[in-house]
Amino acid sequence: MARKLAAGNWKMNGVAADLAQISALMATHPAPRSTVLICPPATLLQRMADVVAGRFAVGGQDCHAMDKGAHTGDISAVMLADAGAGYVILGHSERRADHGETDAQIARKALAALAAGLVPVICVGETEAQRDSGKTLDVVAQQLAGSVPADATADRLVIAYEPVWAIGTGRTPTLQQITEVHAHLRARLMKQFGPQASDIPIIYGGSVKPDNAAQIFGLSDVDGALVGGASLKASDFGAIIDALDAS
Ligand code: PEP
Hints:
The protein is α/β, with parallel strands linked by helices.
């Protein structure tokens, strides 16, 4: 797994016609140096996997902790892998907020993902109130400790730092704030995994756009981005990939 990762989170956006954006991206970016990951809605996973044909990675946006069973509306990690996914986003703040997901649930989902051969992209991040009250580092450390399963391995794990207040708002933390949190996460990962933790991609998410990507990717311990809105348009996501490749 390359350490530099440009991951697009399409959230609940995209129908078959939008696959054209990825065809366009592949035409302008036939061989990016960074790993490019697209996480479409589950309805498009299989078709996205067919379109990218192994040149980009494909991922789910969530999975259930069980492989199968009576869980109407849920999708298992095994099913994501079967549809062509190699990754799955877990613990996105929209899942934590909209579905009340806890760190313990996210850790169980991560175990299921690993067992199915997927790489979990585990999201952590503080709310604005938590940042304002000086709790950011404690919050992300606690989420990390609770969400990353004890028997995860450094070679199959991605961490995304996503301040909740920066997602979809056009606001971003200062470069110093991003650096501080990523260094803190790296230090915690080193404690858990030892020296191999230096290879775990820690990516930043929250209003990454073509015009701020290069600055963010220039920071130490920032290994890429989890991109929402700007991943829906080939030209914007392509510019972000270019910035990562150049960093
Ligand atoms: C996200 O969905 O994880 C995200 C970071 O969204 P946006 O880039 O739109 O802020």
